[in-house]
């Protein structure tokens, strides 16, 4: 009598099933993760806009006008011109799109592949595209 010897290991079919399952999970998880990252970056841009609005109010208190306020790294700029404020990768440009003696509009404009639209904040507190 001879004993039948069984082989151990996995078959090609089992391996293909595992690869298919991993592919399905990745197809579901990756877009969700990308949305989460974009939402986190947008939240950081909103926070930067609020801080810029505070800087605009300080400028107005000192000068009795919003006109003349600027962002960037030049001398006299009241706030940085990119968000997030910390870190090296920047995903939004902070821009003062209009300003007068009594009103302003500031925007966070997406860049570097950041999805979503422009986020804006007006001097009267109105928020545009803050979803």
TrEMBL record:
PROSITE patterns registered for this protein in UniProt: PROKAR_NTER_METHYL
A Gene Ontology BP annotation from the UniProt entry: type IV pilus assembly
Keywords noted in UniProt: Membrane, Methylation, Transmembrane, Transmembrane helix
Residues annotated as transmembrane: 12-33
Gene Ontology CC terms: type II protein secretion system complex
Pfam families referenced in this protein's UniProt entry, alphabetically: ComP_DUS, N_methyl
Transmembrane helix keyword on record: yes
Classification via InterPro entries: Bac_GSPG_pilin, N_methyl_site, PilE-like, Pilin-like
Protein name (Swiss-Prot/TrEMBL): Prepilin-type N-terminal cleavage/methylation domain
Organism: Marinobacter subterrani
Classification of source organism: Bacteria, Pseudomonadati, Pseudomonadota, Gammaproteobacteria, Pseudomonadales
């Amino acid at each position: 009598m001879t004993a039948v010897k069984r082989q151990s290991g996995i078959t090609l079919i089992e391996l293909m099933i595992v690869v298919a399952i991993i592919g399905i999970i990745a197809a579901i998880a990756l877009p969700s993760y990308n949305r989460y990252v974009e939402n986190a970056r947008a939240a950081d841009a909103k926070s930067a806009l609020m801080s810029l609005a505070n800087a605009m109010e300080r400028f107005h208190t000192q000068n009795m006008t919003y006109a003349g306020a600027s962002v960037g790294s030049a001398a006299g700029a009241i706030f940085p011109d990119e968000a997030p404020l910390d870190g090296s990768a920047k995903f939004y440009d902070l821009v003062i799109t209009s300003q007068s003696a009594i009103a302003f509009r500031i925007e966070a404009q997406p860049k570097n592949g950041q999805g979503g639209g422009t986020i804006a904040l007006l001097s009267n507190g109105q928020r545009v595209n803050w979803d």
